[in-house]
Design brief:
Blueprint: H1 6-10, E1 19-20, E2 26-27, H2 33-42, H3 51-67, H4 73-86, E3 100-107, H5 110-117, H6 121-138, E4 142-147, E5 150-155, H7 158-174, E6 185-192, E7 195-196, E8 201-202, H8 204-215, E9 221-224, H9 225-230, E10 240-247, E11 256-262
Parallel strand pairs: 6-9
Antiparallel strand pairs: 1-2, 3-5, 3-6, 4-5, 7-8, 9-11, 10-11
Helix pairs in contact: 6-7
Length: 274
């Protein structure tokens, strides 16, 4: 990294600095894990020229966190509180970027339901999607995509994804369906750094979330170790996790440690993962 003399350093804009230290001095490097952790902790103390400068610095810092495999739990919480206090920004992105928690669902036995209902399957899907959209919105999430029997949502805070998963499973279990239908949804949750497009996400973390959803059973909620770690200190009341061991997921190079979410009102016993 090039050395700067005091005058050159003083002339840099605030967005060029990663963090400020305890004495209020602006610090630039984020070339090791310790610097990145300090930057995450002190990001909220920096006064940026405008929202664009803040966003640029935040993206730079989150990329550094990803490089050192740091799950920025406290940083996420602080950013959420700041954004709630400021209110929505005009023209800002609809979907969050950086470190996010993704939730995917699909309906167990959907092919059998299609055969049974025929054209009536459309009404069933609409009813399920309405329930999923409401529970996601109530827990601070954003719908990304709904197609066929699959639903994809994203959350800035992992606790929101867990809260939504529990709420949707409880409501689905309590609902009585026409013709005594047995409608069960499996849920997969994973936290990471997907690449944002204008209206969706792409990248390995998206595929991991999909694969986690696919190995579960109806009424079951499976989360990754990334999400479990990101929840440290912020696990919603009444939520526990059962370790399921590491799993090789189709198309994913490394085995992924998985956990089953446990909560009152949800079944606790399932067959082995699919």
């Amino acid at each position: 990294m090039a050395r700067l003399d005091p005058s050159e350093r003083a002339g840099l804009p605030d967005r060029a600095f990663a963090y400020i230290d305890a004495s209020g001095k602006r610090r630039l490097p984020i070339h090791d894990a310790a610097h990145v952790r300090n930057a995450l902790a002190r990001f909220g103390q920096v006064d940026f020229e405008d929202d664009k400068a803040r966003d640029e610095a935040r993206i730079r810092l989150l990329k550094a966190a990803k490089r050192f495999k740091i799950v920025p739990v406290g940083f996420i919480a602080g950013q959420l509180e700041s954004e709630r206090a400021l209110g929505p920004r005009a023209g800002g992105p609809v979907l969050p970027s950086g470190f996010v928690t993704m939730l995917m669902t699909d309906i167990e036995g959907s092919t059998a339901l299609v055969r049974q209902l025929g054209d009536g399957y459309r009404a069933l899907i609409d009813e399920v999607w309405e329930l999923l959209r409401r529970t996601v919105a109530d827990n601070g999430g954003h719908e990304v995509e709904a197609r066929a029997d699959e639903f994809f949502a994203v959350f800035e805070a992992p606790a929101g994804a867990v809260g939504a998963a529990v709420a949707m499973q409880r409501e689905l279990l309590a609902r009585t369906w026409d013709d005594d239908l047995d409608v069960k949804v499996r849920v997969g949750i994973h936290s990471g750094y997907p690449t944002s497009t204008d209206t969706n996400y792409i990248g390995l973390d998206v595929h991991v979330t999909s694969r986690i959803c696919a190995v579960g059973h109806g009424c079951q909620v499976i989360i990754s170790a990334n999400t479990r770690e990101a929840l440290q200190g912020a696990v919603p009341e009444g939520i526990r996790f059962r370790a399921l061991g590491s799993r090789r997921l189709r198309g994913i190079p490394d085995a992924v440690p998985l956990y089953q979410l446990l909560a009152k009102g949800l079944p606790g016993r399932f067959p082995p993962l699919r």
